[in-house]
């Protein structure tokens, strides 16, 4: 009889941690690395659902230009886990709440709140139920692409969302900007830095004022208001944008303007202030209005960043968290 080996169950994580970091993207990894180097115990929790998993290469990260985002995450995790104070758990955070700190000597709390962080196990990971003196939210964003049947087939290769990250690779191509938001004119002007052949597709939803449309036209940028049926292409990549009336407008690449959203239901009891656009309100060092709760990366204004910017924010937040843990802040 053949025995089928099964993966061993991962033990749950319990106890007290100096800092729990939610999200193992560049912001979370950078913060974690700097904190363990400060000899802080750090638990990094990640659901392994990176927003840019479809992207083949990331750009603008000094010494790592052109690296796969997945490879960057893999390398970052290995560097983080090489320190004895580091621990990593693949899990889905379900709750961050103020702990009653039962059994913790009052003098250890120094009059500051302590947090209970709970996470459910997902494939390859274990559950989490810990207390922490500080929590860094670096969980990134959830994004919704325009509802086009084939958009995912070209997202990350022919179509991208980060103009600064992928604009250079699209230089001088016939490009599309597809979105349904009210900031398309601003994005179009930015994209025109790399290509003079650009068409903005609003899908009949996106808003561009008459004055903005005139300004775009003066730069040779056309605005197409007709609804889109789909994006089309072949094995070489995107070849065009098909409108509902059947016309196919040739394009070889371009940019999508997704709708972004923070997913913070797990921390709703903390009532962390958010901006009008839904980002977490935090100062330049990542402090929120809730003592001991910090935020870095895409969850803070102005929204989605380059990887290197997120990593820098994580490092800065780590320095402030370390001082908070000392009691000097």
TrEMBL record:
It holds the Pfam family Pyr_redox_2. InterPro entries: FAD/NAD-bd_sf, FAD/NAD-binding_dom, Ferredoxin-NADP_redctase_2. The keyword Flavoprotein applies. Residues 18-314 form the FAD/NAD(P)-binding domain. One of its GO terms (molecular function) is thioredoxin-disulfide reductase (NADPH) activity. Keywords: Flavoprotein, Oxidoreductase. This is Thioredoxin reductase. It comes from Agreia pratensis.
